[in-house]
Structure formats: C-alpha cells, structure tokens
Amino acid sequence: METKKVLITGGNRGIGKGIVEGFLENGNQVLATCRDITKFPIKSDHLTVAELDISDADSVENFKKIADEFGPEILVNNAGITKDNIFLRMSDDEWLDVIDTNLTGTFRVTKLVAKGMLKQKWGRIINISSVSGMMGNPGQANYSASKSGIDGLTRSLAKELGSRNITVNSIAPGFISTDMTENLANDDLLKKIPLGRMGVVDDVVSLVLFISSEDANYITGQTLVVDGGLFMK
Ligand code: NAI
Question: What is the pTM of this model?
Fold first, then answer.
C-alpha cells in the first residue's frame, strides 16, 4: 500500500483508535483529532494529534489551519455520539446534539478538506455511519436519522467529487464492542446476529483500510455494511 496522509476524527478510543493504529501500522502519516489532546493514548513519529470538537463551528474553524498544512488525502469521519431515548421522551437537545455532532460535524470536517482533495485530484472520504441508519432502532430516532443523513451525504458527494478521482463511501457497522456499546451485549441481541457475536474494532478497521487502498479505486457512493449479518436488505 502506498503511504498516504490520513485525517481521522475521534481517534482517541474505540473504532477511531483502531483506525489510527491500522493506518500507522501500514506506515501512513496520520493526523488524529480528539477533544482533549493531553489524554491521547497513542504516540508515534508518524502521528500528529489536534484538538477538535466537530459540533462546534469555532473549533472546526480553528482546526482549519492544521488541516490545510497537513493536506489529508484520506479523511475518515469517525467521531459520533448517541443520546438514546424513546421518541415521545426525546428532547430537542437530545435530537439536536446528535444531529449536530454526527451529521453536521461530518459535513463541517468534509468541507474543510474537500477543497484540497479537489486540487490533488485524488481523495478518499470514508464516513462511519451505522446499520441503525438503515434498519432503524427503537430509542435511536436521532441517531438513526443522523446516520441515514450521512449515507445520503455520502451519495451526493460521491456524485459531485467523482470526476476528480475522489471516492466517497460510508461504512455501516453493526454492534461493535466499544465504550458506546458496553451495556448492550445480551443473548437476545446475539441471537439476531447470524455470526453469533458482537463485532470487534478490527472488523471495521480492515474495511476502512481496504476502501482507502488502490484496490478499491472503482468503489464509490456505497454504504458498506459490517455487521455479522444483522441487517440484510
Ligand atoms: P466511542 O464513544 O468509543 O468513540 C466516539 C469517538 O468520537 C470518541 O473519540 C469521542 O471523543 C469522539 N467524539 C464524540 N463527540 C465528538 C465531538 N463533538 N467532536 C469530536 N469528537 C467527538 O464510540 P465508537 O463505538 O468507537 O464509535 C465510533 C463511530 O462508529 C461513531 O460514529 C459511531 O456512531 C459509529 N458506530 C459505532 C458502532 C458500535 O457498535 N460501536 C456501531 C455503528 C456505528
């Protein structure tokens, strides 16, 4: 794999941390973001860490200079949150926080780097969405809407940017063992997953690395599901 410059949001834990490690292991130059850089768990000569809160337009604006200087060729929009509640109890804040972080945050960061990719006439944008956005999930109206929104954004951008050799895809994980899902694993859930287990971070990382590689040159506008068979169209 030719080495590249890769920007990953929310790289300090869970799936994002695995993606940072995966790109570093393959010799790439990584710019990882985190809301508190003093707590970033990985150190490497090939790694730069920068502070970024994707739900805060000012924070994104402050990050612009760092992103411009780095010049990412690959962007992984990984940062995301859940604020689950049954629909009738869901507050405006719970709705807006999740949409603003997951969907608007992805829009903001992508906008920041798309111009540079257009100039380079090469780029890979990978958005981490979720099967929840495709199949729906009770208690996750906000999260499902934000993740379907990411899939729609992915398809529109794939059409706008394709002529400049920029591919845009989303990856929709099922249930992956991380802090976000630590209380979810139970027998009823596992029965719904044909492969009979929760996913692990590496199940997602390997797909991110493949989609970033030259082997995936002709794949764009897709939502690629990695969920052990939980959701089948
Ligand atoms: P996590 O909660 O362990 O990590 C989320 C990351 O996003 C953290 O680094 C956090 O600091 C960052 N983040 C949250 N809000 C942010 C903000 N406003 N600005 C900047 N960074 C922010 O979660 P996990 O499981 O690693 O999730 C990563 C992505 O994968 C998320 O987009 C999530 O929705 C998605 N996903 C996770 C699944 C799972 O089963 N764990 C399933 C499907 C999708």
Answer: 0.98
Task: Output the pLDDT for position 185.
Answer: 79
* H or E element at residue 29: strand 29-34
Q: Separation of 79 CA from ligand 1 center, angstroms?
A: 5
Mean pLDDT of 48-74: 98
Residue indicated by tokens 């869901």 = 90
Q: Residue 123's closest CA among 207, 33, 220, 203?
A: 220
Query: Which residue numbers are catalytic?
Result: 143
CATH superfamily of 5-226: NAD(P)-binding Rossmann-like Domain (3.40.50.720)
User: How is residue 103 annotated by DSSP?
Assistant: I
Q: Which of 53, 63, 78 to mutate to test the pocket of ligand 1 (most atoms within 8 A of CB)?
A: 78
